[in-house]
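Fold these two proteins, one after the other.
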Amino acid sequence: MSDTQKSLSEVHASVEIPAGKPLLHRWWAITGPALMVSVGYMDPGNWATDLAGGSRYNYALIWVLLMSNLMAVLLQSMAARLGIAGRCDLAQACREVYPRLVNIPLYVLAEIAITATDLAEVIGSAIAFQLLFGLPLLWGVVITTFDVLLLMALSGFGIRKLEALVLAFVGTIGIAFFIEILLARPDWHGLVHGFIPSMPDSTALYISIGILGATVMPHNLYLHSSLVQTRRVGRSKKAIAESIRLNTIDAAISLNLAFLVNAAILVMAAAVFFRSGHHEIAEIQDAHRMLEPILGAAIAPIAFAVALLASGQSSTITGTLAGQIVMEGYLNFRIRPWLRRMITRLLAVIPAVLTILYFGEGSTGPLLVLSQVVLSLQLPFAIIPLIHFVANRERMGTFAIGPRIQLLAWLVAGIIVVLNVKLVIDEMAVWLESAAGGAWIFYLTVIPLALMLAALLVYVSIKPLIERLRAIGRIAPAAGIHRAAETPAIRLASPQGYRRIAIALDFSGGEEQLINESLRFVDKAQTAITLLHVVESPVARAMGAQADDPETAADRRRLATLGDTLTGAGYKADWRLGLGDPVPELARMIAEADADAVLLGAHGHRGLTDLIHGTTADALRHRVSATVIIVPLSAPRPRP
């Protein structure tokens, strides 16, 4: 795998797992990714849904928190498994399996989810600045546009330092809510009764789905599958199995700590606001303002505001990384992390500013809850591909999940899809009723969009299944399906060797195997070899032959080195570097080289596909007159 294709390449495999050390030492080296993920489960969006649920329904929705947390532990452990055993993140896996036409909307949905997450972080941090320093909410939003640059600067000190910073934030949140619970003195009997599933009314369903979206966050699945790859894990089965086991334990511990924080927020809201008759607390500012008069302790609102600020800032870090992972994974497009962060933050700041200016500062609570509902609606588009990938033995080998875990995972996915479908139908009915004379706009916009999203969900659900069935059919076709036919007589002739073969390299792993396999077709006396590679970087696509970015320079050096190696071994070899779209560039270079045979590597993920960054062999085959030979290679990410 080339450096440009490694997930979070700047910190990839940067943490050494001490081999031969006691188990506790190895676990301490592995722990961290789940902690980074857990902060997303206690961000300001969670606060809004937990406050709304506790103040309105007492302890009745705490079972939703528990159910969501159990789902999160299962799904996050699966995401970690994909990163460790599959050696790719969720976005990269989607790019490999689904066609570009599907990956683009999947990418857009993932970006919407990250923007919704960041919206919650922006509003939460702005509210914290207001509560602690008296700043107007609008100024707080503006400050959050720039505070992320300071936090991102800290990432230059390494992933472990970043994890330590997040740990400090999480500890601050935990201590603050420990103080709140001590002061609130909840009804423990009522709290236990809240673990019995119930749904008081239709509004409770809306809040419950918001809690689900705030707890099982789609961007965390992308994040976790990448962060586990910051550990340098051995490729033996024993090392991978141990890493999966320790990361699963790490996920269970970290996410249960996040559950305790969320439960503390809901319990505090129930014990303080529901008990005092304040059943409509959805604004974080209202909760802060009423804590001191109700509890009679000046420290209560201060601890609340400090915890909120820590929550927003810690979530900012993980949101940054998730945005980078999604963009690089789906689009194979890299920009500087600070620029990526500013783009994401501005996408969140704009709706926050417009909402505050138009509706006033009292509108932030509903906006926070809405952001979490948006997250929940995006969940199936991340969960369903994840289940397919970790259940695929071709990708995961012996570490694919078994039937029982698959059944449980599909049950979780089914629950989420059913809840979301009900929510969408209910909300569409409300919108249609309120549209009155403008109902035609609803039918022209909302209905087609809902149908397209439904079709997309069906496609991502069944496409991997169809591919697996086709693979089974290719491996073991049914006997007697073809009628026997007489074999015609043919005249055999002595074959002539190829004059020039072209070898297309994509630098995703397997170059040595492809070149060695290609030498089977080479006669040193009469066959010339041309090595081909196409650079697909944004600079290469935009500037073509004028491109001179680091990726182009690195690929040019790789080609030159390989060419020199072949020449030194006595072969007649040269190389050509293309820039831009792989198919037309390869076709052009093959024609210029006058090659009569072209050899391509296929990693086996999609039959004869998986040529250079998603380009298909069929697309090239129709553009050249040379013989096209597919060489099956090992997976670009080594399997155990």
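Now the second one:
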Amino acid sequence: MPAERAHDSADFVVVGSGIAGLTFALSVAKRGRVIVVTKKDDAESATNMAQGGIAAVVEGTDSFERHIRDTLAGGVGLCRREAVEIAVRSGPGAVGRLMSWGARFSTEVAADGSKHFSLGREGGHSKRRIIHAADMTGKEIETALLSAVGSSPNIEVWEDHVAIDVVVGESAEGRRCVGVHVLDVEAGVVRTVLAPVTALATGGCGKVYLYTTNPDIASGDGIAIAYRAGVPVRNMEFIQFHPTCLYHHDVKSFLISEAVRGEGAVLRTLSGERIMEGKHPREDLAPRDIVARAIDRAMKETGDKHVHLDLTHLDPDQVRSRFPNICGHLLELEIDMTKEPVPVVPAAHYVCGGVAVDLEGRTDLPGLYAIGEVAHTGMHGANRLASNSLLEAVVFSERAARSAVDVFDNGTVVSPGAAGTEWSGREAGPVPEGVLIDHSWDIVRRIMWDYVGIVRTERRLEFAALRVSAIRAEIADYFARYPVSRDLLELRNISLVGELIIESARLRRESRGLHWMEDFPQRDDEHFLRDTVLDGGLRS
């Protein structure tokens, strides 16, 4: 690379190409040039893997109040009520917005000949309100949004680009985000994109754990990037483990949707006993934290490595019609879910905490927004209800877009040659000690799975903190010495995010929602009815 690198510039730069990032990009594209930076091909995202659907009140016997009440109950006292009300009341409009971009959802014909949404039901919801496209809702939404993006002359998508850090400049008003440094993996160079608005839409951090339903790109990049820039994070201890990830030696990260239990499937031990019977009034449709802990407890009691999800009592034709993608994929693995139980195990699925934002997606750093799973709006509290995440992503990405357009319209400009914005780190290239990177990856993820998982103790968290801190020191040395590579960048991020999860968990000395401490098994509203906040910028 030459010593003087030309800057790329845009009016808006979006890091991530899932439902949040693409919604934001489409919502601002009429006002200026948008660059969407994405780590692999543009269709790889958690959105694309989402099977369930989007929760919204569109049926006459349902109500906004019921959806709000269900969400608040699931969040165990930590939901931000205003965020919940905004999202729920905006639900029908969000669905309409997705349909205007080309998304098509499953419908059915009523006895009177009218056509309406075919609604599913999932854990924690008191009514059928899950709008879906069979069991491929995420793929339907992602395909529609990508098509709309491809038709927009103002949006440019950069595939195979990994964000390194945001660019922070100084203005008369103080520190401000003025863009982002990214690694162009294919070209092997570091590029700098300057823009008055940067939106982080990088999704979650499931790859911090050994077993996850998330795609390989979910390494917590946006959380780490924002934190290094001095932005606080909130409630990182609340990691949702999906109860039913396929357990199979040839397949990783294949989710068996909660909608399967919504249609009547039940969880059993390998000896056939009902796991959720008597554990919760809604049994197999209890909130995910309760179901995941019950499975974890059953596995520990029996010593089994997995449990069974049983649909064999349901009508085979209805199962195949409702879940064509799941049925087809399992048949390829010689599992017929209409005739035999499916082996499943809990796996890291969703982070309910994230980058601290307001109700317009703004962070504490002017010019920087966070949207989707990477952000903490307060909607999910201590436990996310199924299918509320796609709803949150659309609603708050559109709100963030309106705020970002105001920034643009008010004349905030970043000079293409802004001083002090050059990348000052190592250039891109192969890592000479790749085995060290691979080994550290394995250690961090194993520590998080074994000691910071579904059930925690103070001793386990103390051990995890010591080990991850030592590994992070090694990674900092790698980063200072070795060329920049995707693997090194992701390792740097998962180790930091792991540390943030551990520290947040150690601060919450109670059990609530997704955070279960054997040392403190009771909920403590007197001391912990509040968010856990870690101020940003304390670690590199």
